[in-house]
Amino acid sequence: MFFAVGCWLRYKKAIEPQHDNVIMQLAMDVGYPCLIFHSIMKYMVVEAHPAISTVSFSLQAIGCGFLEMSLGVLAAWLIARVMRLRIGTGLRTFTLTAGVQNYAFFVIPIVQMLFSNSGDPTMGVLFIHNMGCELFVWSLGVILMCGGASDLRLGLLLRGPLLAVCISLLLAWSGLGAYVALPPVMKAAEMIGAVATPICLILFGCSMFDLSRNFVWRPRMLTAGIAARLVLAPACILLAAWLLPVDPLIKRIMVIQSAIPSAVIPVILAKRFGGIPEVGTQILLTTTVCSFITLPIWLTVGSRYVVPILGN
After folding, report:
1. 20-305 has which fold?
2. In whole angstroms, what is the distance from residue 172 CA to residue 181 CA?
3. CA 81 vs CA 78, 90, 91, 95: distances in Å
4. What is the pLDDT of residue 151?
5. CA torsion angle for 188, 189, 192, 196 (degrees, to 10)?
6. Which residues on neighbouring strands pair with residue 101, listed in sequence order?
7. What does the radius of gyration of the chain's CA atoms come to, in whole angstroms?
8. Do 227 and 76 meet the contact criterion of CB atoms below 8 Å apart?
9. Is-contact 125 61, C-beta < 8 A?
10. Which of 1, 97, 190, 256 is the least buried, fewest Cβ under 10 Å from its Cβ?
């Protein structure tokens, strides 16, 4: 529904393209960090859920997030090699776009719908897990897109969401969180964080309206993107989730993440570091649309063979 609202607002020119950066900055640098802070403090400090309050659990979740990104990019690279893509013809953009799933804003509504029971720590686990995704994207992802490590700077890594996870975890692990996670602070963080997901989904709808026009579509590239992002990558991630001796809460997140379509971030990186944004945009749009068919299939497979998630 939010996608449709975004498309309609762009069509009516209620949100112009020049407004996107400011609105996205509000969501990413204010709303999203508050949502992360509230979720981690709620489950690791206020409720002190024993399943996710330890350092070892957090490191497992972060490592699994990084592993998922690696498996997805490897799957996309293998498909790109089969297509005989080279640097300059879309190899880097295809590999990163088809390899990186929309691990945050596409997943949050799914987790909110599936695990809405009071005291369920899944949302907190998601944000800890996503720290590994952020680490991959803003380190190896940037290196991959720009063809080397020369453009990798600390400022690219120190973004609001990643800082929010780091600070929240340090507060929780050190015991200082009990002095910070007070009712006024938590309520303010909850109210501000609640705007992040709707804003980003609406803006994503705006982007879909913009990017779906005036394109020369490449059927072969799109088919390969679907095969990489929605077929091979999910199979690899589910296999890893089945094999890894990690907590079922982490496996639960891995199952959901396996079925998610491509993210917007690789398209942004392609624009910044000399990739081919048109390739990334088409893969983004196509995998997003097709995921409405493949997502329930992979969730059903994961729920049956890895860890139960449906029916919670």
Report:
1. Na+/H+ antiporter like fold (1.20.1530)
2. 10
3. 5, 11, 8, 10
4. 52
5. -170
6. 262
7. 19
8. no
9. yes
10. 1
Residues 57-106 have pLDDT tens digits of 888 998 999 999 999 999 999 998 888 877 666 788 889 999 999 988 78
For the chain, domain boundaries:
20-305
- 237-256: per-residue pLDDT in tens? 999 999 999 999 999 999 99
pTM reported for the whole predicted model: 0.78
Higher pLDDT, 12 or 255: 255
- Report the DSSP beta bridge partners of residue 262: 101
Buried b vs exposed e over 68-84: b needs ≥16 C-beta within 10 Å? bbbbbbbbbbebbeebe
Distances from the Cα of 192 to the Cαs of 34, 42, 111, in angstroms?
A: 6, 15, 19
Do the beta carbons of residue 240 and residue 67 sit within 8 Å?
yes
Tokens representing 155? Answer: 């400022």
In the prediction, which pLDDT does 173 show?
A: 84
